[in-house]
Amino acid sequence: MILFLRDTLPTKRWQGCAEGRRLGAMTGTNSSGGRSEKNACMRVLGVDPAAAGPTGYGIVESDGRRCHMLHYGALKVAAKRQKDFAGAVLQDVHALLCRLIEEFSPDAVAIESVFTALNMRTALRLAEVRGVVLLAAAQHGLEVHSYAPREVKANIAGHGHAGKRQMQMMVRALLSMNETPEPSDAADALAVALCHLQAERVRRQFGLPDPNHFAKLRALRAAPAFTALPAENRTSSVTRSGPPRIL
Description:
Strand content: 15-25%
Structural class: alpha/beta
Helix content: 40-55%
Number of domains: 1
Radius of gyration: 23 Å
CATH superfamily: Ribonuclease H-like superfamily/Ribonuclease H
């Protein structure tokens, strides 16, 4: 059952709480969302950042054979709050993600990459929300895996031009959900999480290296190395002739 909840703040959330509780009992989660010690499943938090609309989120767990939905929803900040406070969206998204990470303890975060065909203003707003997602993940020591929208659609629906409704139906089928996930932003977040779980399963099955490992190596190689100056080029206040110059 999809619930529409209204908090004390003028913020709207759509959450699949009932379905999450049912599947939580099946996958060994307790009431707080934490995993039991015997559970060796992989849990992924999927995020579908939005520039103006709701930011979708979904948590999917896999035991290597089947995937289960634990929790999903979408966060939309009221227009009045956005007008009164420029950083309202970023603040609420960050607070929500931190709460989800602390409650469900995911192993990784999967997020949709910025679509290059967007106009400059929309791309910048989307990048701001994406930066908040990266910040929340870094604060909790989680790796973030980025997937292009067409890559997600190809993995879930079989082709990169699938529509919103088709993605919702495929997510429902893959997760054996009793109801179609609403809104579509939440379904997109679940799809991103499923995409990462499939990619991780293939990587482990064939012994492929982690893509983030190469990114870290490239970052280390691109970082300028510190080179110490030769002893003859060093000057100290003791050997320097004349009074020091004040700039």
